[in-house]
Amino acid sequence: MTLIGVAALRPSLGSAQQSSANAWLVLSKDGRQPLSTTVLNGHEMVSLDDLARLFGTTVREDQVARALVVTDQGKTITVSGNQGLAQVGGRVVSLSAPPNRSGSTWFVPVDFIDRALALTHEPKLDVRTRSRLIIVGDVRVPRVGVRVEVQPAQTRLIVDIAPPQAHSVVQEPGRLLVRVDADALDLELPTLPATAADLLRAIHLAPNAPAIAFELGPRFSTYRTSDNVIDTNQVRLTIDLIPSQPGSETTITGTPPTAGSPFPTPTPQSPTAKPPLFSETAVSTLRTIVIDPGHGGDKEGAHGPGGSLEKNITLAIAKQLKTALEAKLGVRVLLTREDDRTMELDERAAFANNNKADLFLSLHNNASVRNTVNGTSVFYLSLADYSEEARRVAIAENGQALPTISGSDRQVELILWEMAQVQHIEQSAALAGIIERSLREKVKMNAHAIQQAPFVVLVGANMPAVLVELGFISNPAEEKQLNSAEFQQAIVASLVNSVAQFRTYLEGRRGAAAHAVSPVGAPHASVPPTPDQRLR
Ligand SMILES: [Zn+2]
What we know:
Elements: H1 18-21, E1 24-28, E2 31-35, E3 38-40, E4 43-47, H2 48-55, E5 58-62, E6 67-72, E7 75-80, E8 85-88, E9 91-94, E10 100-102, E11 105-109, H3 111-120, E12 125-128, E13 133-136, E14 143-150, E15 155-162, E16 167-172, E17 175-180, E18 186-188, E19 200-205, E20 211-216, E21 220-231, E22 234-243, E23 288-293, H4 310-329, E24 332-335, H5 345-354, E25 359-366, E26 376-381, H6 388-398, H7 412-418, H8 425-440, E27 445-453, H9 456-459, E28 465-472, H10 476-483, H11 485-515, H12 531-534
Parallel strand pairs: 1-13, 14-18, 23-24, 23-25, 25-28, 26-27
Antiparallel strand pairs: 1-2, 3-4, 4-11, 5-6, 6-7, 7-8, 8-9, 10-11, 12-13, 14-15, 15-22, 16-17, 17-20, 19-20, 21-22, 26-28
Bound molecules: zinc ion.
């Protein structure tokens, strides 16, 4: 069993997506499934339809008793129709609210799962309210508590793991990663003391693994760890972050902050640390390309009037593009999904990041209420000042409005991690321009052929990234075209051509950068990492 992508479990920090912001996550041997909830009359409610889907329960209304009768694996749970009470095998339990009906769907308070369903269900259910996890059966999800103590000579991180699990500490550029041998983590994060900032900027769950990332501050030099078994139920990992000595930062190589930029520059490393692998964020060649076929699984994307689904068209074109790129350019190409599966937006960027992709290309179909609107368009990330049109497309793709930098619905710590794309916008803009010019030679472009928009799927990508709206599936003629081999081949040929041009562009820039170095020697920044370095 692999449970990758615990990114959705950032309970204390919120999330970029509506679907996961309020969703619980059900973890079982079979994988993970979101469970969304709805607030009705101030109570967090879950639909019995969703519980039926996840746990195989059935429900019927008992008009005489004015109750709902939920059957779980042959056992009966009777939920009072007008009071917050349920009866389970002769036992009465209280619920925070009575059930509520919306249309034909019944909702029960979410504590129904813990207080009633958990009494009947096999394998057993373990409801972790704090981290909004429902663990089914024998899945390893240790509770992990983190404390930060700012001491005179160092900052101490205390990580308690219960029950004890094997773990390791790995240093990566700009951060320490504590990996835990588990299926997922039930993580409690502290509020960071402001005085810790020069050694530690942020703590968060790693996006794609059961691991905790400690984002290091500019004075970080090295670290020490020790393990203590507290008792059979808990192990304590202590990590001391040791600062560099004042004045020793003079040899730091790093990109100076952009004037007025609210974004952090990559963390400079002290001379005693290993050379930074990614001290310059700019990509300098193309080795690995991640293609993201939009949507998938129960997220079908836009529907065409003839019945085509965006998720199928994006996947078909992505597969052809992978084959063509590998054959013509000799690059490594990975797809975020190879088949019809549901994937969260932030998992897609995380997949590209984890595979050290040098380019991220997300493929979609546009849709409009006016079925005459047509043409292909290319988008790259913007965080503010986007056009109404761009905003509309982004909302359609994201499933919600994307918060902007100035918005209050994201927390500042998240920006450091999640806004990885900000550092690549210049290259992304260049890529978008190359793609737009190349597509224009072969297919009809939209009136706004190149635009910036706040796409969630691009935000976390730590490499140049663009999103191509291949055409309007809502337009009957374009729907037909999107399905045609001829059009698909034209798109693929244009995109292969664009990627080749972008590679030339990157390598030209790298050459230019090498001539601009100081006499001290070539900064490692402009030397591409060796394959070994890239395998972190
Ligand atoms: Zn889409």
